[in-house]
Amino acid sequence: MSADLCCKTGFRWNGTPSGSIQQVHGLESYVTKSANASGKHVLVFMTDIWSHKLINSQLLADTFADEAGDLVVYMPDLFDGELLDPSCLSDPEKAKSFDLPAFIGRHPKHGNAKLLAKYIADIRAQENPTTVGGVGYCYGATGSVVLAGDGKNNPEGKPILDYTATAHPSLLDASDIESVKAPALWLSPEHDFMYTAELKDLTQKRHGNKSASEFKYVYFPELSHGFAVRGNPDDAAQKAGLEKAKDEVVAWIKLHTGSQSNKL
Predict the structure, then answer these.
(1) pLDDT of 227-257, one tens digit each?
(2) Which of 144, 169, 149 is nearest to 229 (CA)?
(3) How far apart are CA 216 and CA 229, in angstroms?
(4) DSSP per position, 116-147
(5) What does the alpha-carbon distance between residue 116 and residue 120 come to, in Å, rounded to a whole number?
C-alpha cells in the first residue's frame, strides 16, 4: 500500500466516547478528563489527518484519561474545520480520489507546529498546569516531535512540551528528530513509508544513549503505518499491537506525571 493511501484508510472502531467537543483556547477541541483531574497535568493529543472527530482518536483519548489518571486531555482541530469524507476510511477506491498532498499543502507542517505552540502557550498561561505533554499520530508528529525539539518554535529556546510520545510519525526530516530534547517515546511499526528505516535508525542512534526516562523506542514487527490509531481490532496481531501501543503511552504519561487512575 502506498504511503498516500495508508494515511487515508483504516478501520473505524466501535464504542461511545465519553468526552465532549468544546471551544478551548480558540480551537474546537475534543475534551476528556479523569475523575480526579486536578488540572495539574494536561495532555495535548495531536491527531492524524482524520482530525479530532475520528471516534478512534476520541476513544484513545478517553482511555488515556481513564488509565493514566489525574489528566486533562485536549484534542484540538488542526485543520480549520476541514474534514475528510468518512467513507474514505474503509473504501480505498474513494480514498484514492482524495488529494492528500493538496490537503497537506493547506495545512503545512510548520504552520501546524505554530498553531499548536500558541495553543500550548495559552494552556500554560491560563491554566497553569504542572506538566503539558503531547502525543501525536501520523500527521500529529508535526506537533508531538517538532514541539519536543530544541526550541525552533519557542522563543525561550527550549522544548514546548514537557514530554512526548509519537506513533508512526509523518512529515519528519532528520533535523526534527535530531533536535528532540524532551523525554520521548517512539512507537515504530515495521512497515512505514513515512517513518523510514533511515529515520528509525537516526532516532535510535541520536537518542539511544539517553536514560530510560528520557527515551524509549518500541518496535512493532509486521505492523504498518497507522496501526496505533486505525488498526483492525478484529485482527489478532493488529489488536495486540494497538493495545500495546496504548499501554506504552499510558505508562509514559504516568512516568512523567506520577498520575493515578480513575476516570469521570
Answers:
(1) 999 888 899 999 999 999 999 999 999 999 9
(2) 169
(3) 19
(4) HHHHHHHHHHHH--SEEEEEEEGGGHHHHTGG
(5) 6
Q: Using only the alpha carbons of the chain, give its radius of gyration.
A: 17
| d(C-alpha 187, C-alpha 248), whole Å | 8
Backbone angles phi, psi at 89, to 5 degrees: -60, -40
What cell does 163 get?
514530554
Average pLDDT, rounded, for the chain: 90
Report the distance separating Cα 202 and Cα 196, nearest Å.
Answer: 10
C-alpha distances (whole Å) from 18 to each of 41, 72, 202, 252, 258 are 19, 13, 39, 23, 23
The pLDDT tens digits for 16-51 are 999 999 999 999 999 999 999 999 999 999 999 999
Query: Which range, of 82-86, 138-142, 152-156, averages the lowest pLDDT?
Result: 152-156
Distance CA 138, CA 108 (A): 14
Residue 69: per-residue pLDDT: 86
Residue 31: how many other CB atoms lie within 10 Å: 18
